[in-house]
Amino acid sequence: MRTTTLGRNGPEVGVIGLGCMGMTHSYDMATPRDDATSISVVHQALDLGMTLIDTADAYGPYTNEELVGRALAGGNRERAVLATKVGLLTDSVQVADPASTSPGASRNGRPEHIRASIDGSLRRLGTDHVDLYQLHRVDPQVPLEETWGAMAETVVAGKALHIGLSEVTVNELARAQSVHPVTSVQSELSLWTRNALADVLPHCQGHGIAFLPFAPLGRGFLAGRFSSFDDLPQDDFRRGLPRFQQDALRANLAIVGGVRRVAGRAGATPAQVALAWVLAKGRQVIPIPGTKTPRYLAENAAGADIELTAADLAELDALPAPEGARY
Ligand SMILES: NC(=O)c1ccc[n+]([C@@H]2O[C@H](COP(=O)([O-])OP(=O)(O)OC[C@H]3O[C@@H](n4cnc5c(N)ncnc54)[C@H](OP(=O)(O)O)[C@@H]3O)[C@@H](O)[C@H]2O)c1
Questions:
Q1: pLDDT of 139 over the 90 cut
Q2: How far apart are CA 323 and CA 87, in angstroms?
Q3: For ligand 1, atom 48, which residue shows the shortest CA distance?
Q4: Is 189 in the pocket of ligand 1 (CB under 6 A)?
Q5: pTM for this structure?
Q6: How far apart are the first and last CA of the chain?
Q7: Strand pairing partners for 184?
Q8: CA distance 259 to 261
Q9: What residues are paired with 212 via a beta bridge?
Q10: Count of helix runs (H) and strand runs (E) in the chain
């Protein structure tokens, strides 16, 4: 796979990475986990050059890091650029933070939480450092400079090589940068979630910061996976999202129809077109599509080689806005 650098001073990574969340969290929770297949998907990703492997302590919580740790044992750690996150709490005993954009999740950006959490992440991941440690959400109760200062301490301690942010505003990004260099920003970016194009992505591009689009496949919707609410698995996070409610989902099929049209012309799949559109936003853009399915992984990796014409990109740019908020 083609490579790019993770921010100005980061390591070289494949232009598409792998999001591991869905292997243990959020999606399809009624179906028993298939860890052996998930682990093989991580290995397949590394073999194909999708070296950026993304997880978080909140996924599970903890089960996702444990699974990724198992996948990277036995010599695979060195092949990966390992990224995890801190600061979002998804333990069911936590009281939901009304300011949070993720239902059922609260935030903790207190320096002592960051300091304590990195050690737990390293233990679960079976490594003495992560390549990228990301603040999952800014905690409105804690000055960002204090949280980011604690993130910077993990770099000084050699426990993280680089640090990044997730779902931030340009203002928050600039405040963090004044304390310690920001290597990456992870935010939702896809054909149906384009807010980052207005300001955060241009800011990243102007400052040598990598931008990691999460949910680049619209949580599977843009890949053409779902044509009705009833297609969503039981016990699945998407069942609670506005865009996936029956009427909204039906209206949003117009977006998938447009993606399919371009895919047909380009000799690609809808998932590959969704990834190619994101990749066309610039060299610093490194999407992390999530999958636990070997054939999807292979399909997504090949998305790095799809070249869309200017007319294809214009057609995709002109797709209708989605019905329904993203959370
Ligand atoms: N920073 C944050 O706040 C945040 C939030 C959400 C996600 N993330 C990160 O971003 C990663 C990706 O996001 P996501 O997993 O939510 O959404 P996504 O990548 O847009 O979509 C994942 C869904 O698409 C399906 N899929 C993947 N490739 C496919 C293909 N080629 N054809 C058909 N279906 C396909 C997957 O199915 P299977 O799983 O069944 O294979 C899964 O249901 C996560 O894993 C996580 O690491 C970060």
A1: yes
A2: 30
A3: 214
A4: no
A5: 0.96
A6: 33
A7: 164, 210
A8: 5
A9: 186
A10: 10, 11
